[in-house]
Amino acid sequence: MHILLIHQAFVALDEPGGTRHHELARFLAQRGHRVTIISSPVSYLTGLAREAGAASASDRAEPNITILRTYTYSALHRSFVHRVLSFFSFMVSSFWAGLKVKQVDLVWGTSPPIFQGATAWALARLRRKPFLFEVRDLWPAFAIEVGVLRSPLLIRLSLWLERFLYRHADQVIVNSPGFVEHVKGRGARDVRVVANGVDPLMFEPFATGFDFRQTYELQGRFIAMYAGAHGMSNDLEVLLGAARVLEDRPEIAIVLVGDGKEKPALRAHAEEIGLKNVFFLPPVPKLGMAQALAASDACIAILKPIPLYATVYPNKVFDYMAAGRPVVLAIDGVIREVVEQAGCGVFAQPGDPVALAEAIRALADDREQARAMGLRGREYVETNFEREELAEELAVLMERMG
Q1: Which of 126, 192, 294, 324 could pair covalently with 209 via S-S, beta carbons 3.0-4.6 A apart?
Q2: pLDDT at 340 over 90
């Protein structure tokens, strides 16, 4: 079967960001399917564009996987208006690129950005092939609640498009059980959960990350690490507030690995208030994430205290668990249920820097217990969220559709 994936924010394994789709594509290819991915040359995490004609190693040579990078307006992080222009430019260019892909059996659309879902739907209908629509977060609902999406016209358009895609998809998949009620309530007929998972073999729970610590002069510190996007939703100002509360514990280092639109402002604020216990490190490709997480003693997952965020399964939490590190969780809802069932972390009330600081302090004060939590998390994801098993579910679903 030949599967066509339209995904502006696709990330290869040798790039920073979430690599769910590359890992799934590899599994599908190993199963004998062909996967063509139409993506952007502009990194969704950093906003940086590749040089003309440049390709990652993963773009060039993988059996049964073809990655096509098509034109996208590059000023992704300049403002919301520029971001919308980027979305629409990719929607159009990916449609024309998709028309040139031959002998497609199934078209796979993914959101966000939701506008590329329209491209996937149109290509599927023109070819009279099944349309699989994947919902990775509840856009535009999240964007409206955070305050990113304010234009009444764009809100109406986005809400209409959301319902249209749910109603016209032959199959809807969501990566969190918290999304099911939302998408069914807006017209989705057949909804399946294919959760975010992790390949445990990519991580080594007993590694020390010595080289990573030495590179950044973090030897001897208790490292509480946040790894991921530095965006408006991630509430990292609260993490800086927690770092300020922890200034009486100089051995505790708050380490932020990643990039995003808010990173320059966060760095400037940390310097302005004189935080000496906060370290901003560059983004790490997925192939290097094991070493970064191995250097940590605890890992932080945080989102703004918005009710809708109680529905999400963040990728980073599963990576943290696979790395055998205890989770400091400032997110309520379905992911809290996972962490508490696994016994692998400490919950801190979202939006509260003092609560977040005290959760980090508690783990630093009892490192043996922290280590035991981390190993319980590793065991739990091996049993419940192993990516190969989840990929098998997706493959079977696609084969039935095709």
Answers
A1: 294
A2: yes
188 and 208 part of one domain: no
- The confidence score (pLDDT) of residue 61 equals 58
Q: How far apart are CA 221 and CA 250, in angstroms?
A: 8
- Tell me the residue ranges of DSSP E strands in 251-344: 252-257, 278-281, 298-302, 327-330
Same domain, 321 and 221: yes
Residue 184 is part of a domain; what is its CATH number?
3.40.50.2000
CA–CA separation, 250 and 246 (whole Å):
8
288 and 390 in a single domain? The answer is no
Q: What pLDDT is recorded for position 49?
A: 76
**Phi, then psi, of 132 in degrees rounded to 5:** -100, 125
Q: Each residue of 237-248: pLDDT tens digit?
A: 999 999 999 999
- Residue 212 CA to residue 221 CA, distance in Å, equals 12
Confidence (pLDDT) at 75: 77
pLDDT at 57: 46
pLDDT tens digit string along 215-263?
999 999 999 999 999 999 999 999 999 999 999 999 999 999 999 999 9
% of residues, the chain, pLDDT over 70: 97
- Per residue in 108-126, pLDDT (tens digit) is 999 998 999 999 999 999 9
Go through 64-87 and write b for each residue having 16 or more CB atoms within 10 A of its CB, e for each that does not.
bbebbbbebbbebbeeeeebbbbb
Query: Which residues span the domain enclosing 369?
Result: 200-384
Indicate if 106 and 209 belong to the same structural domain: no
pLDDT for residue 45: 72
- 209 and 127 share one domain: no
φ/ψ (deg, to 5) at 85: -60, -40
Residues 376 and 242 in one domain: yes
Residue 62's pLDDT is 84
Of 333, 278, 267, 282, whose CA–CA distance to 303 is shortest? 333
Q: Are residues 263 and 287 in the same domain?
A: yes
What is residue 238's three-state secondary structure?
helix
Domain count, the chain: 2
Rounded to 5 degrees, φ, ψ at 130 are: -65, 145
